[in-house]
Amino acid sequence: GSTVIGLNRPKIYRAVGRVTPNIKGSCVVQVGTRSVAASNVKVHGLDVYPQRALSGGAIYGIGARLDVTPTAYAENIEIRQCYVNDATIGILVAKDSYFPSMLDPGRVSSRFKNVAVRECVVTDTSNKAIEIGECVDSVIERNLIYACVDGAQVIGNCARCSISDNIIDVTNGAIQVAHQAEDIKINGNHVTS
Question: Nearest CA to 130 among 173, 101, 100?
Fold first, then answer.
């Protein structure tokens, strides 16, 4: 079975106190831990307000991020109909560091599988709205992204992913595909700036 988080639109604010500043950041909602993956998880209908100005460091809205065990991976993660406002990065599903071991055969075989970010609203991020990294067979679709610096990003050795049918209004880059990503489909997006 799947674990379902947040069906009744709870509002989650950053915990009282400051986040310890670090380059890896902290997540308001973390799927799994940074060393142990969580698979078969659905995050539906959450309203997340990280309050980045009060955090003292990088803070992410909803994240599934592994940075201790390079061969660990998660599969079947769906983030759907969530609202994220005022984060450094709105939604992040990725490994910690894409370089230099991104193309190591063990790491390539342990990419995240079947990640879906659908029908979310992400606004007012100081970095990217939605990022998936080191993922295969994954989608970013039917999201509304506005008042963010960057929009949707598929990076870090992703394969067979799609960015489709999103509405994106950002100040910098709307869609980015980079760092060894391949077989990425981009279609039906409406982009303004």
Answer: 173
- Within 25-137, strands assigned E span 26-30, 41-44, 47-49, 59-66, 75-80, 83-85, 89-95, 112-118, 121-123, 128-133, 135-136
Per-residue pLDDT of the chain (193 residues; tens, 9 = 90+): 555 555 454 555 544 333 444 445 677 788 888 778 888 988 888 888 877 766 556 778 888 877 777 677 889 999 999 999 988 899 999 876 555 566 677 777 888 899 999 999 999 999 999 999 889 999 999 999 999 999 999 988 899 999 999 999 999 999 999 888 899 999 999 998 7
- Bridge-based pairing of strands 144-148 and 121-123 is parallel
pTM: 0.86
DSSP 3-state assignment of 11? Answer: strand
* SS3 label, residue 53: helix
Report DSSP state, residue 158: -
Amino acid at 76: N
